[in-house]
Amino acid sequence: MADHQEASVTLPSDPASVRAARTFVAEVLAEWGLPSDSEAADTVRLIVSELATNAVQHTFGQSPTFTVDVRLDRDEQLRVGVTDSHPRFPKRLPAAVQQDNGRGMVIIRWLTAEFGGTLTVRRTREGGKTVSIELPWTAPVQPVAAGGPQEP
């Protein structure tokens, strides 16, 4: 596998795009060797769903699109980020607040920590933000013969 791989998709800020973001990331990870039925793949899909949902619901129409970036470095570190153009950073709600939504960042933070990763929120040059997670890569590395991939 290459030292660095990346993929990206920009989607409209529409509820239907949450599924498209999840599917995109699942397909990329499978292509890179992470089995789609693994616990890590399930976790990343859930995190992407939460990040994309936040990008759609909490930008109040001020971000017409959002971008999902997936990056794998040296078969060691997976980074998934969702960027939107809304300037407001996500807020953590107090545990005592009773409401039906607003728990996305808590879920993302917990799942990321459970897999030994980190969560970051960064301002973009354009004034928006990127919420990203970094996780250790757990897929088995497929050895490549000196002549390239072999047909089975």
UniProtKB/TrEMBL annotation:
InterPro entries recorded = Anti-sigma-factor_SerPK, HATPase_C_sf, HATPase_dom
Signal sequence annotation = none
Q: Which Pfam families match?
A: HATPase_c_2
Q: What is this protein called?
A: ATP-binding protein
| Keywords tagged on the record | ATP-binding, Kinase, Nucleotide-binding, Serine/threonine-protein kinase, Transferase
Xref: CDD domains:
HATPase_RsbW-like (cd16936)
Q: Which GO terms describe its molecular function?
A: ATP binding
Domain called Histidine kinase/HSP90-like ATPase: residue spans: 11-133
Presence of the UniProt keyword Transferase in the record: yes
- Superkingdom field: Bacteria
